[in-house]
Amino acid sequence: MHQDFTLLWASLAGHKPERKLKGLVVWITGASSGIGEELAYQLAKCGSRLILSARREDELHRVKRHCLETSDLKDEDVLVLPLDLLERTSHEEKTKTVIRYFGHIDILINNGGRSQRSLFLETSVDVCQALMELNFLGTVSLTKQVLPRMTQRGRGSILTVSSLVGLAGAPLATGYSATKHALQGFFNSLRPELTDYPKILISMACPGPVQSQIISNVFTEELNKPVATVGSQEHKMPTNRCVHLMLVGIANGVKEMWIAQQPFLLFYYAWQYAPTFAWFITDLLGRKRVQNFKAGVDADSAYFTKPKTS
């Protein structure tokens, strides 16, 4: 199997998402594309009431229309709420808007953010700052507004979409990996602060490579420089499979989910249980990845594609 054994067990013997999540109010950031968009579709089919947030309001309305067309939800069950994670001063009012509309928030899914494809020696520090402001501080800011509402009710769930590079680093993603490490440290430290609230779940989803549009919007060496090559997506886990496993995890109270196809999942088990060996493998694969990236092969397909030759 290509997923963590905990998720495998939960999917076979535990609570089914379509039963556990029905009727719950779920706020999704980054809901206009990729994993966030697929989360909206699958949660709609589960019968969850949704708040869809991202910067692009027109895309959010497109996602809402699809949710309504493919589920039993009514128009009033899906709130489109444009949100910029960088505008932290707006997060309090956005949260109040959700509370006024639905009365409470059962689940916050921190999915918004951007990735990176660039070598650190060629990357502006401004890129690292932008990544940290968006992926880390934006997520912390919204969590800061939502969590007190959950402690008042004594229940709720916060699912944050981290990454396998939040557990072990990867070349070409130094800044991005740092933000995911920061999220892991933050939420792993927050969880034991909430021991007086046993019905509040702090959960981390750590996907490996997933078929998503995130690559087309990555940071590169400079803030406004687009990525040169998106590359093949065929070797990555399908987005719908990744999202299904996330929902299985949250329906069954899983605190950390490793979601990846092989050989990526095996690599991170090596990091967990045999770190000295993992360092050796990291050096070998990292060198290959950087060489292929310099040759013009997209980073995500570097392990599966030979470098271009002239």
UniProtKB/TrEMBL annotation:
Q: Which PROSITE patterns does this entry report, sorted A to Z?
A: ADH_SHORT
What CDD domains has UniProt attached to this entry? 11beta-HSD1_like_SDR_c
What is the protein name for this chain? Dehydrogenase/reductase (SDR family) member 7
**Highest classification ranks of the organism:** Eukaryota, Metazoa, Chordata, Craniata, Vertebrata
List the InterPro entries hit by this protein, alphabetically: NAD(P)-bd_dom_sf (IPR036291), Sc_DH/Rdtase_CS (IPR020904), SDR_fam (IPR002347), SDR_family_member_7 (IPR053011)
PANTHER family named in the record: DEHYDROGENASE/REDUCTASE SDR FAMILY MEMBER 7-RELATED, DEHYDROGENASE_REDUCTASE SDR FAMILY MEMBER 7
Task: Establish whether keyword Oxidoreductase is in the entry.
Answer: yes
Could you tell me one molecular function GO term of this UniProt entry?
Answer: oxidoreductase activity
Native organism: Oreochromis aureus
- Domain of life, per UniProt, equals Eukaryota
Would you identify the family this protein belongs to, as annotated?
A: Belongs to the short-chain dehydrogenases/reductases (SDR) family.
Keywords assigned: Oxidoreductase
